[in-house]
Amino acid sequence: MRRLYVTLLTACALAGLPAGAQESFDAFRERVNKDFDNFAATKNKEFADFRDKLNREYADFVEKNWEAFDMLQGKPRPKDEEPRPPVVYPDEDKGKPIEDEQKPIEEVIPVVKPKPQPQPVVPIEEDTKPRPVEQYFAFKFFNTDLKVRLDDEARFRLAGCDERDIARAWKMLSGQQYNSVINDCLRLRSEHKLCDWAYLLMLDELSKQFLGAGTNEAVLFTGFIYCQSGYKMRLASAGDKLYLLYASDYLIYEKNYWNVDGEKFYALDCDRSQIYICGASFPQEKALSLQVATEQALASAPTRQRKLHSTGGVDVVVSTNGNLMKFYDAYPTSMVGDDFGTRWAMYANTPLSSRARDMLYPVLKKSVDGKTSAAAAGILLNFVQTAFVYEYDDKVWGHDRAFFPDETLYYPYCDCEDRSILFSRLVRDLLGLDVVLIYYPGHLATAVCFPDAVQGDYILIGGKRYTICDPTYIGAPVGATMPGMNNVSAKAILLD
Question: Which of 349, 351, 339, 350 has its CA nearest to residue 439?
Fold first, then answer.
């Protein structure tokens, strides 16, 4: 900002600068620098004063406004119809032309677009007092080494868990001493490409490791940084225990919640049937999103290598990041609004890890090079159909569980939804074609929008033709719908 400011004013000065006036110009430039410093100091003070005012008002509200709320039961994972087992494409049909047939579609579920991540209500001013040595607190997050500016003096203890104790602690945390750690946490969010869910878990880990797991101090510290980062949260208590509630527009399956002013608030670790919730809110606060739009930049921990072989002749050895697998294991499955089809879109829109891409994509690219888009899609389709072992989620996990693309490469078994999610990722990344998921009761497939008409079953969406490709119809070509699928009740799920 300073450089731009000075450059602009310098250019203006040079335009009218007489010959031999270098000395007066140097004086002008020095004055410009001082003017900018004064301007920046004024703005920083205005920001700091505004934020101090907001935090004082918030703390005053914390001291007075708590109300009892009953816990509401979370929505169970959707009970789908009996999953359709894989079907093998008949040998006698191989090589025969497929009839061209438009299939009906009941509903089109729109793209779930990620929103910008929350930001502090104003820039957070750092403490400018010089320190002999900057002290850092190092902590681990999914085996990733992180550090923030915190020293032993920043540790604090709550006198108790009543409203006045929490309000006093909030005012203390609002001092300049903790500004650096907020900015450091936001920097880590950016550097490690952390989604909202990962950011909340990171703050929770930082607080537990700095102030002690299970302590009220750790809960309050997490809540404070989370709030100052722009997220919507509420403090709650029951007896002598403090809790953090986070708001989300996503309905998280099997997760109990509290309805506060018409919004769902969830807790990381609270199972109390009734708690007292503080209604204090912060300006411009935003609810947590559960989308994972970028690869989470966690420390590399290569998983065991897995050999994959397709009947079409694709042989590849692949591995992924074990730390990423641990993060995905902690990810809560959810839906947007009341449409459970959106959950599959969130998995499908998550990119494949760089490690998996580096091992898998060169082999697949070599297999599809020089092929038409339909032939290339057929090779990828055969790879997903035949290189993986099918098994029901209920048998493996005890419940329905969708996989991110990396998880399908990592775990020994997968089902129709996992295959369709992975296939949609491969086609978009390697062929650059639009793909939609097709949900039939009890089954998930895909359809691809090819640049030229491809013979076979297809659907029309917005005037575009999408040809059916089913990763669970073993050996089936592009354009073949698995037997028994009821298109009258099928839904198309648009992907990003």
Answer: 339
The alpha helices in 229-332, defined as continuous H runs, are 322-329
Q: Is residue 318 a contact partner of residue 409, using CB atoms and an 8 Å limit?
A: yes
Write a three-state SS string for 221-284: HHHHHHHHCCECEEEEEECCEEEEEEEECEEECCCCEEEECCEEEEECCCCCCEEEEECCCCCC
Are the beta carbons of 143 and 299 closer than 8 angstroms? yes
Predicted confidence (pLDDT) per residue in 307-318, tens digit: 999 999 999 999
Contact assessment for residue 336 and residue 250, using Cβ atoms and an 8 Å cutoff = yes
Q: Which residue has the tokens 């001493």?
A: 177
d(CA 473, CA 487): 16
Number of other residues whose CB lies within 10 A of the CB of residue 120: 17
Strand partners, 102: 458
**What is the distance between the alpha carbons of residues 205 and 172, in angstroms, rounded to a whole number?**
21
CA within 13 Å, CB half, 17: 18
Q: Which amino acid, one-letter code, is at 280?
A: A
Query: Residue 27: left if φ>0, alpha if ψ -120 to 50, beta else—which one?
Result: alpha
Closest CA to 438 of 488, 398, 368, 383: 488
Residues 308 and 387: their CA atoms lie apart, in Å, by: 5
The span from the CA of 423 to the CA of 417, in Å, is: 10
CB neighbours of 284 closer than 8 A, spacing ≥ 6?
Answer: 121, 230
Per-residue pLDDT reduced to its tens digit, 354-384? 999 999 999 999 999 999 999 999 999 999 9
d(CA 439, CA 443): 6
Q: Hey, what are 373's tokens?
A: 């888009």
What 3 state SS string does 374-388 have?
Answer: HHHHHHHHHHHHHCC
410 Cβ contact partners less than 8 Å away, ≥ 6 residues apart:
303, 306, 320, 325
> How many angstroms separate the CA atoms of 429 and 95, rounded?
28
Residue pair 163/62 in contact by the 8 Å Cβ criterion: yes
How do residues 398-455 score in pLDDT, each as one tens digit? 888 999 999 999 999 999 999 999 999 999 999 999 999 999 988 999 999 999 989 9
Per-position b or e across 394-405, b if 16+ CB within 10 A of its CB:
eeeeeebbbbbb
The token pair that represents 228 in the structure block: 């100052």
* Nearest alpha-carbon partner for 154 in 169, 139, 133: 169
Residue 88 main-chain phi, psi, to 5 deg: -90, 130
First CA to last CA across the chain, in angstroms?
A: 35
Query: How many helices (DSSP H) and strands (DSSP E) are in the chain?
Result: 13, 23
Identity at 149, one-letter amino acid code: R
Angle at 66 between CA 60 and CA 67, to 5 degrees: 155
